Amino acid sequence: MMNVRSYALGPVQTNCYIVSNKEKECLIFDPGEEAERLMKMIRSNGLKPLSIFLTHAHFDHIGAVEAVREAFQVPVWIHEKEVSWLGDPAKNGSSKYVALPDYIVAPPAEENIIKEEQSFEISNFSFKAIFTPGHSPGSISYIFENDGFAIVGDTLFEQGIGRTDLLGGSTKVLLTSIHEKLLTLPEDTIVYPGHGSYTTVGVEMESNPFLNGF
């Protein structure tokens, strides 16, 4: 069974998830900010990062990528539609906020660009990357079927859904992604969102007001 640690980081408290195994190897999802705090936690727990995975490239999900990548010499994975967002503050949204620096992250190696839905087998981590656009055109959810959880970025929240008024957003596309890709998972699947508390597929199917009547 995998261990999932959650850390709310940065100015908008974006959830970074660190999934680790018994061997203390780990995968890092959305290191959004506070690189020093994040790296201190990783080292203090004796964890060995293997890779960084991004659900999407908005500024609050990528702020610590460069520092963490360099510190641990690990690859970064992202959807091909948002590779250019990493180095473009206008696309990743950081340029819209006067109080924030421009967030610029170097693009990943070509072999780490996710161009189609795929399964990953990294050490004993087994999961799928599925496309759940709507909040952004390259949003990805990572599904750990054997472990009963999904890391979904800003696609689905506890009693909410991702905003769709940003570049490339679409409410219709987002709702389709949620209903066809996430709500088809087992109802006891734990959903780890980009902000706020975790929830389950079953709870959101039953009571999320944004999904009723779709």
- Write down the Rg: 16 Å
Topology as a string of helices (H) and strands (E): EEEHEHEHEEEEEEEHEEH
- Report the strand count: 14
CATH architecture: 4-Layer Sandwich
**Average pLDDT metric:** 97
Continuous helix count: 5
Unreliable segments of 5+ consecutive residues: none
What percentage of the residues does DSSP assign to strands (E)? 25-35%
How many domains? 1
Please describe the structure with a list of short key phrases separated by commas or semicolons:
214 residues, MBL_Glyoxalase_II, Metallo-beta-lactamase domain-containing protein, hydrolase, alpha/beta, six-stranded mixed beta sheet, metal-binding, globular, 14 strands, single chain, Metallo-beta-lactamase, Chain A, 5 helices
Summarize this, please?
The chain has about 210 residues and is of the alpha/beta class.
Provide a descriptive summary of the structure in words.
- GO terms for molecular function: hydrolase activity; metal ion binding.
- The protein is an alpha/beta fold and 214 residues long.
- It has a single domain (3-207), classed as 4-Layer Sandwich (Metallo-beta-lactamase, Chain A).
- It contains 5 helices and 14 strands.
- The protein has helices at 35-44, 65-72, 89-92, 171-182, 201-207, and strands at 3-9, 14-20, 25-29, 48-53, 76-79, 113-114, 118-122, 125-131, 140-144, 149-153, 156-157, 160-161, 190-193, 199-200.
- Helix 1 runs parallel beside helix 2.
- It is globular.
